[in-house]
Structure formats: C-alpha cells, structure tokens
C-alpha cells in the first residue's frame, strides 16, 4: 500500500528536533523523500540517518539565501520539490517588550518572516516546474490570539499568517497551495522561553488555558502538516489551521 506522499519530495526546516523532526519523520513514513534542514547540522544529519535513504540532512540558516539555495538544491537530487515546510522558528523569552534588544528583534524577524520570503524565491520556481506544490508555514496561536510577554514574536507570527494568505491567492494559478499551521505552545526546545521559565506551576498554568488539557506535541503538528501536504487537501489554500486543543476559541 503506497503512502499519502508517495513520490513527493519535501524540504522541512527546523527538522533537527521538535515539530520539524516530527513532520520530517511522518512525511518519510508516508513515502516522501525528505530534506531535513536545520541550523544544527549534526541534528539534521542524525534525523536523516535515522529516517534512512529517503532523507538527506543539510545544515541551513533559513535567514541566509546561500543556505536556502543549498537546501532546495538538495531536494533537486531527489528529482525536484513538491512540498516546503517553513517550520524553523525563533523567539525571545517571555517578558516586557521593552527589554528585547535590537539584535534579538532582528533575528526573530529574520527567522520567522524573512525566511519565508527567501524560501519562496527559490522554491516557487522549482514547484512551477513540477506543475504545483504545497507550502506550509509554521505560524502560531500567538499570531491569532496574542498575549503580553511575547509581543515581537507574536507580531512575527501574525506576519507569517498574512503572508501565507496572500501567497495562497497569488500562487493559486500555479497550483501551489499555501497554508499556515498555528500550534499552541508545545513540547519543543523553545517552551521554556514561551513560559519565561519551565516549572510545574507554569506548565499547569499554560495547560489550564487549553480546553483539551495538554500542550501540543510533534505528532499533532505532523498529522496536520501531512494532511495539508497531501492530495486530500487539494482544495485547501490560504488557511491558518489552529492545532491548539481549542486554545483560540
């Protein structure tokens, strides 16, 4: 029985851990060839090696055009590019918006916003050659229901959502679908930054705000990304899909 992504080639950024790793593993399990891209090259290589011959690990800073070209070229070694998941993200620690210095602000916008622009410059022409494709941008519930303490991160995710919707309309004639995923805080390496500090009390406070009573997990994101990337979602574009246990209700 063939997988839901059989014959497809995907690039997943930030795939050396967390949501990205979960997405890369699920895509490969459904028949896709996957470029595992991460700023931590060792992590990318580890995940790719564990997936097997259908994956290739690439060190890439998504805010640097030369690295973006390299990770997309890696997809070319599998035959082309059908799916791009702009998952890599960056945040500041929960706290006053006035305490975030300019260097941190610039890095957040570079990874969460500029990276989507850079990837589009390279990926869209490759997808046109394939007759279409699917771009999935990891945004956040923070872009839909922002709260104090993560103001500049929230703003960058709002940018990602608006960009996804505008890209969806502009690229529709090319049969390139563009959607955003909006997870609630999850079990990733950035959790302690979202909460300010990772303590049982803070976790309980966060979980209490989620109707389904838990944080998001990589397999939650992987399932949602798989559906959006598959032909089952062939008529879905311009959507900001909340993967949040009801948090945004």
Write down how many β-strands occur, each being a DSSP E stretch of 2 or more residues: 7
Q: Tell me about the biggest sheet?
A: 7 strands, parallel
Mean pLDDT: 95
Q: Any low-confidence stretches, pLDDT <50, length ≥5? A: none
Sequence of strands across the biggest β-sheet? 3-2-1-4-5-6-7
Features:
249 residues; 45% helix; 7 strands; Rossmann fold; alpha/beta; 8 helices
Give an account of the 3D structure:
By secondary structure, this protein is α/β, with parallel strands linked by helices. The protein has a single domain (9-243), classed as NAD(P)-binding Rossmann-like Domain (Rossmann fold, 3-Layer(aba) Sandwich). It is built from 8 helices and 7 strands. The chain has helices spanning 18-29, 41-51, 65-76, 102-130, 151-171, 191-195, 200-208, 218-229, and strands at residues 9-13, 33-38, 55-59, 83-86, 133-138, 176-183, 240-243. It has a 7-stranded parallel sheet, sandwiched between helices. β2, α2 and β3 form a beta-alpha-beta unit. It is globular and about 45 Å long. The relative contact order is 0.15.
């Amino acid at each position: 029985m063939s997988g839901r992504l059989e014959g497809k080639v995907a690039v997943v950024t930030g795939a050396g851990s967390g949501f990205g790793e979960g997405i890369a593993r699920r895509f490969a399990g459904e028949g896709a060839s996957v470029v595992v891209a991460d700023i931590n090259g060792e992590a990318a290589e580890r995940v790719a090696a564990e997936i097997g011959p259908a994956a290739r690990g690439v060190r890439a800073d998504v805010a640097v055009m030369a690295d973006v070209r390299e990770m997309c070229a890696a997809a070319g070694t599998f035959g082309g590019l059908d799916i791009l998941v702009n998952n890599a993200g960056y945040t500041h620690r929960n706290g006053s918006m006035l305490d975030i210095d300019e260097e941190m602000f610039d890095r957040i916008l570079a990874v969460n916003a500029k990276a989507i622009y850079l990837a589009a410059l390279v990926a869209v022409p490759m997808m046109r050659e394939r007759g279409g494709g699917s771009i999935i941008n990891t945004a956040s519930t923070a872009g839909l229901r922002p709260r104090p303490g993560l103001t500049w991160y929230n703003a960058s995710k709002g940018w990602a959502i608006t960009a996804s919707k505008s890209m969806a309309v502009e690229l529709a004639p090319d049969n390139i679908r563009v959607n955003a995923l909006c997870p609630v805080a999850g079990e990733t390496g950035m959790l302690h930054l979202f909460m300010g500090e990772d303590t049982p009390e803070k976790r309980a406070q966060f979980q209490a705000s989620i109707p389904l009573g838990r944080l998001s997990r990589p397999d939650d994101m992987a399932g949602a990304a798989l559906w959006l990337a598959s032909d089952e979602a062939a008529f879905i574009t311009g959507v900001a899909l909340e993967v949040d246990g009801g948090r945004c209700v």
